[in-house]
Amino acid sequence: MEKGGYTLLSVIQDNVKTEEIFNQTCENWKVILKGLKEAVEDNPYN
After folding, report:
1. Which residue, among 40, 42, 35, has the nearest Cα to 8 in the 3D structure?
2. What's the whole-number average pLDDT of the chain?
């Protein structure tokens, strides 16, 4: 397994019709991506 590599993750969300929904969506993705980052970085196989 290669050490020191990187992963690129792209997220696209469509159908965001209002600024309020956009702001809620941004906050949701921040939480999701933070959890994903922590899970990946804490993986003992890294």
Report:
1. 40
2. 88
